[in-house]
Amino acid sequence: MTTAPPAAPTATAWRHRHLLDVDALSSSEIGLVLTGALRMADVARGDRDRPGTLRGIGLTTLFYEASTRTRVSFEVAGRLLGADVVTVAASASSVTKGESLLDTMRTLEALGARILVMRHATSGAPYLVARQFGGSVVNAGDGRHGHPTQALLDLYTLWRRLAPDADPASAFLAGRKVVILGDVLHSRVAHSNLWTLTAAGAEVWVCGPSTLLDGFEAWAGAGVGGTRPFRVTTDLHAALQDADAVMALRLQRERMTAGLLPSLGEYAARYGLTAERLAAARPGALVLHPGPMNEGLEIAPEVASGPQSLVTEQVANGVAVRMAVLTLLNEARTAR
Ligand code: CP
């Protein structure tokens, strides 16, 4: 017997016209996204009719950095909701002729964009755009700062796997140990996940070489949001011991300054997530990676595609989560 899906998210409990990072979201708002995603999952799988929630709404993706899964899943999510989806790759736009970010935004708005999904190499760029854009801005990754929909889809994936009957607005990961492993220094995914994982009550351990943990000790002591401490260690075995889930991060060579790592080979030898190392975690511990993966570097190929890996499930869940986010933002925007 199938149980009835939880109630649909409503605009009365969602205050935001933009989604710039998860630190703006209360636990109940995070719960609204996860509940909404659960309702959208049938549509994303093609098992239910498309709702047409965004019919006639212009959704533009504007990416100044490369992307496969985030851009495509936002575009799939928009189409499933009936939006008029436009794709702009900055590398093939008038940006190459010197057009500014704000000029580009104004041009796209004049061409019908009402929801702007943007990725930029500069931390804070979506905040600048949101101050001037008439519609809704969704941050699809800004520099090292934030990647809110990645954190939300990671949390959704853990919710469905570890606590599917729990209220998604509750501390449903209480008593669960989650490890974030690797290049946390450059990772917007780590920053946003620290917020959502600790909000859901997880015991979070951050692990990597000391050069890639700079500043995290101080943050861990102060706590996420000033109240939710986490652990920081260079000891991979201690981090993995009895873990319920491990999130390996991509080594971001494009953001790496010289001298942070002796060599990629040494990094792989000391911090690569291998099957042997994963054995220290709980049996069946879940393995996540936001992608794209450097297999053989931060994660061994047999782990990346092994039975504990949720990597493709994360990608698939991203469509439903982004449908929920777009729906909530549109409701908030049109309610004004
Ligand atoms: N996880 C993620 O942001 O992947 P893309 O760079 O492919 O969008």
Q: Can you give me a brief rundown of this structure?
A:
The protein has 336 residues and is of the alpha/beta class. Helix content is 38%, strand content 13%.
Strand coverage percent: 5-15%
Calculate the mean pLDDT score and round it: 93
- List segments where confidence is low: pLDDT < 50 over at least 5 consecutive residues: 1-11
Widest beta sheet: strand line-up? 7-6-5-8-9
Order of helices and strands: HEHEHEHEHEHEHEHEHHEHH
Count of DSSP strands: 9
Shape: globular
State the helical fraction.
25-40%
Q: Count the DSSP helices.
A: 12
What attributes does this structure have?
disordered N terminus; 38% helix; 4-stranded parallel sheet; 336 residues; alpha/beta; 12 helices; single chain
Report on this structure.
- The chain is α/β, with parallel strands linked by helices.
- Helices cover 38% and strands 13% of the residues.
- The protein has twelve helices and nine strands.
- The protein has helices spanning 27-45, 69-80, 101-110, 125-132, 148-162, 188-199, 216-222, 236-240, 264-271, 275-278, 301-304, 311-335, and strands spanning 58-63, 84-89, 115-120, 136-142, 177-181, 203-207, 231-233, 245-248, 286-288.
- The strands form two sheets. A five-stranded parallel sheet has the order 7-6-5-8-9. Strands 2-1-3-4 form a four-stranded parallel sheet, with helices on both faces.
- Helix 4 links the parallel strand 3 and strand 4.
- Helix 1 (27-45) packs across helix 12, helix 3 (101-110) crosses helix 4 (125-132) and helix 5 crosses helix 12 (311-335).
- The longest helix has 25 residues, at 311-335.
- Residues 1-11 have low confidence and may be disordered.
- The protein binds phosphoric acid mono(formamide)ester.
- Phosphoric acid mono(formamide)ester binds next to helix 2.
